[in-house]
Design goal:
The protein has 92 residues and is an alpha/beta fold. The chain has a single domain, classed as Hypothetical Protein Ychn, Chain: A (3-Layer(aba) Sandwich). The chain is built from 4 helices and 3 strands; from the N terminus they run αβαβαβα. Strands 1-2-3 form a 3-stranded parallel β-sheet. Helix 2 links the parallel strand 1 and strand 2. The longest helix has 10 residues. The radius of gyration is 12 Å and the shape is globular.
Length: 92
C-alpha cells in the first residue's frame, strides 16, 4: 500500500522493494502515482503486474479521469478483499 505522494516519499526505494508478483494499492495521496501522463506510473508498472487504486481517493482529489487504464480502480469492498487475500502487507 502506497499512501504518500511520489514527491513526499523515497519512490526509488519503494520500487526496489516491489517484486514482480506483488499487488500494489495506491490510496490517499499515493493515488497521484496512478496518473497516466506522470513519470511514476510507468516505473510502477514495470515493477509489478497489478496496480490497484482506491476510487474514493481519486474522486476526492479530482483525478479519476487522469488515471491510466492499466490500473484497476477499486471500491472499499474490493480493498477489503485485497487485504484478506494478502495477509502480509507493507505500507509506505
Amino acid at each position: 500500500m502506497i499512501t504518500h505522494s511520489p514527491f513526499q516519499c523515497d519512490f526509488r526505494a519503494i520500487l526496489r522493494l516491489i517484486s514482480p508478483g506483488d499487488d500494489v494499492l495506491l490510496l490517499g495521496d499515493g493515488v497521484i502515482m496512478g496518473i497516466e501522463s506522470g513519470i511514476t506510473f510507468p516505473a510502477l508498472c514495470n515493477s509489478t503486474q497489478h496496480v490497484y487504486i482506491l476510487k474514493v481517493d481519486l474522486i476526492a482529489r479530482g483525478l479519476l479521469i487522469y488515471i491510466s487504464p492499466q490500473a484497476t480502480v477499486i471500491t472499499y469492498n474490493e480493498f477489503i478483499n485485497l487485504t484478506i487475500e494478502h495477509p502480509q502487507q507493507i505500507s509506505w
